[in-house]
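Why run this: before we spend reagent on co-expression, it is cheaper to look at a predicted model of the complex and decide which construct boundaries make sense. The entries below are exactly what would go into the expression plan.
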Amino acid sequence: MVKVMIAKPGLDGHDRGAKVVARALRDAGMEVIYTGIRQTPEQIAQTAVDEDVDVLGISILSGAHMKLVPKILKLLKDKGSDVPVFVGGIIPREDAEKLKEMGVIEVYGPGTPTLEIAEQVKSFVEHSNA
Amino acid sequence: MSNTQMREDEILEGIRAHDRRALAKMLSICENDPNLANVILDKLEKKRSHVIGITGSPGVGKSTLINAILDKMNQGVGENVNSIKDMGTATNKKKIGVIVVDPSSPFTGGALLGDRVRMQSHATEENFFIRSFANRGALGGLSPSIYEACDAFEAFGMDNVIIETVGVGQSEVEITNIADTVVVVLSPDNGDEVQMLKAGLMEIADLFVINKADNPRSQILLSRLRKMMITGDKDVVICLTNAVTGEGVEKLIKELDDRFFQILSNGVFSLKRKKRLLHHAQSIVRRELDELIQKFENDGTELKEIKKRLLEELCRKAHKNGS
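The model came back. Tokens follow.
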């Protein structure tokens, strides 16, 4: 059983995307923990560790991704977790590249088919367990 | 299944040293390999926690109520009672484990675990540990590895283990087999008097909570509940709460502490624990049986023969495991 966490850091309340993805992953047979809007990086990292999730998805539409994502990645590392992280939202292409260089496994923009996300999420977990 | 593996001895050592990561990994073992979990948990000493079950229909405010309980406990409400002599003397903050269960899909096996949304303000508290479980098809509103998970929290030294069931209907009463105290949460729109008279959920309450007490209709529910109690043989405390504002929650915590003190002294606690052990064993046997049935290919055998073969297989398995 694949256990995923979908989290929304920062101050924007646009949770439609996070909910659509959470629902799609649920329908693909995964157990999805949704933690709601306006989470701090600390809350997200600690929850991912406590819930021992296989993969973490972060949704940001506020433009603060270059601040928030590195913070979450660092906190996870400090807590001894190497859970794969993917990001979704409004992320400019050049930022997406930078995020990937920092260790984010994939970045999804608007219009990505949910089935594609589900398939890839499953493959991230397989790779990280291999 | 988890990203970084921990060896069994690391988990044992970690739990003894109160390392959260070890508990997190232990709980994953409980979910994915409960038999192994039982072997590991057997090696750990367990604290005598007060196991509190919170149950009720979807949307009555179970998760929000737990959040309010955690809020108050963080402010120092509630006594750290682990024995009768502790009563009234303990002052340190309570360590609390929370198990929240949400339903799995019968079609895909997937689940959306959303109880945490209401409790996220406590995600980083050192003395609290919240963990989500999918019910993975188990009947009764709990997870198939609920006994193992509860043991793991007790091994971690929690003062309270709070278990939130899935939103239940009328007949999901499994929680009464594991919890020392069952809290049935109702909200003012729970239906008329006949609903109060029905067997099942309404009978298992050790404590009733009428949540959303700011709704004027809660007074009607209160009088109906009282009337029901007059005609029954069980006198159950009723607390009115507003989980969003925290109103009435202090009293609820006090009632829970009183109840724990009471069951410790009148022998109900040890009786409950004996029963819990029996139901834990039942859940293990049930799991073995489920596995057998999944593998069992019915090639047109008769009912009697199927039953015989299943029982024989079960015995063979038990001998092989030496258990």
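Chain A is about 50% helix and 20% strand. Chain A has a mean pLDDT of 95. Bring this page to Monday's planning discussion.
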